[in-house]
Protein 1
Amino acid sequence: MKKFEEKTTHTTPIFDGKIVKLQVDDVILPNGKAAKREIIKHPGAVAVIAITNEGKLVLVEQYRKALERSIIEIPAGKLEQGEEPIVTARRELEEETGYGAHEFTFLQAFATSPGFADEIIHIFVAKDLYQIEEKADLDEDEFVELLEVSLEEAQEMVANERIYDAKTAFAIIWFAMQQAK
Amino acid sequence: MKKFEEKTTHTTPIFDGKIVKLQVDDVILPNGKAAKREIIKHPGAVAVIAITNEGKLVLVEQYRKALERSIIEIPAGKLEQGEEPIVTARRELEEETGYGAHEFTFLQAFATSPGFADEIIHIFVAKDLYQIEEKADLDEDEFVELLEVSLEEAQEMVANERIYDAKTAFAIIWFAMQQAK
């Protein structure tokens, strides 16, 4: 896990934002030479595979400024400081979809962009859903539209790139494989 | 594709690095209110599922400073300015593994972190491999170790999180599903 370790000799903080921080680390490479690494610090995030009592997968469409387009994803959101991922998962599912879930199970975690960012996404599966009576508010800068599709439709949407983000594509395919076992 | 579009009124460049750029966009939300978006600009990347003539998947282990650990990935690298992804795929496979391939096919593309970055990864499948006689040099700050595993072993490594990054996990599972059809 530490093979080819790069030791930090100095960290230069560049930006401290609402979502990300950026720093440049001076490092010593395994061959003793010096190099610089540009690193995005992100608090981490959760994403939720929510299955309705009719067996449909709950998706949300939202505008992603970085891509300058709207995309279709599973409900997701970033961790607040010191928050357990399961807590974030419950909150984001409620806020983005109006669903609560009696059953939450952890599925998998992964790094999204290890070449430049430390973001880890924790995937949960939510079942035994119920409608929240007083739907929690979205963040004030968030606008989403719900879709409910079958797992077969979702896999088709991965194949034709209507689903276009790594967490959603991986989560759908991985979950479908586990179900098929 | 433009649902809930956020119009940019001003862009503040923050950082222009070797790998990433960071900017903060002032936007107008669909409800007319103003907000800020922190955006990482990345040139995009390729990743290669390379299958040896013995049917093994070629993996590389390397240190990822952002995660402060070494991880096991499929060969990958970022696009140079204006470069076609297939060209990057050939170069990165050769540099990181010493393999060339007579057959390259495009598999899928996806966004890795649409919440804050524009990075798109293009996945290719490389078959009919051959050893490069004079192995191309790695970038001078790159150190990698090769592994060759069966597709079954690779899927097991996703399940137990020895494979821990989105592109590799998705590519392995997606490729395995296509093969099984």
Protein 2
Amino acid sequence: MIDPFDDAYFMKRALVEAEAAYELGEIPVGAVVVVNNTIIARAHNLTERLIDVTAHAEMQAITAAANYLGGKYLHKCTLYVTLEPCQMCAGALYWSQIDRVVYGAADEQRGCKTMGTKLHPKTTIEGGVLAEEAKQLLKRFFVEKRNLN
Amino acid sequence: MIDPFDDAYFMKRALVEAEAAYELGEIPVGAVVVVNNTIIARAHNLTERLIDVTAHAEMQAITAAANYLGGKYLHKCTLYVTLEPCQMCAGALYWSQIDRVVYGAADEQRGCKTMGTKLHPKTTIEGGVLAEEAKQLLKRFFVEKRNLN
């Protein structure tokens, strides 16, 4: 039986968020938080617009999900994010005790795996879901940015 | 000549913030951001009140300082924080490219040194300024919390 709510389904929603960031001239990264097959938070990178290095998609999604749940721990939740989380976002996910993190493209320079950031023992993490789509969007952004300057 | 604006001076201001957190029943950690001997941001931990694991003192101080400066990089700034930053906060400080981080008490369990979080190459970090005061306040908080439960 086909599961309509598989990882690709939710990662596509995160990609829609990444595209919204792209349209705003932000580094295109998007995220959604899911519990029981329901999206309870969605966000995209807004570091330029908010003039705030902490405004990564994941950070906003964590805050919004906790607000929705009325509790600060994201037990039974999954975060889908189009790019591997950085140290800051992985550190926030650590505190959230989230069940599961699924990312798209790897960030070999500044991703939490390369940087060795620890997640909570309760948390599982996996990457590579619609990685090519996420990577192509990022590539398009940086190529255009380079041509503009 | 005595410098009235030494590290202890600003750490005392961070401790005032930590005490404000304590009064609210929050884990007592406070922070200030300083540029040219002027405090441009002050914040204390609000994770319980805001129901948000990302609401550490440092995170709010980084956001407030960038808002004050009108730019997201905290060049020439020093962050004073009463407790060694965690992975999340050190990760945010990494992105901010802040000049200097000064902390009070060490956090041997979840501090950025133990966790191996990387700061920006431009950033220097040192600890131990009014460490005993910060530690005693934290100790008092956890002893009282234990007795209440």
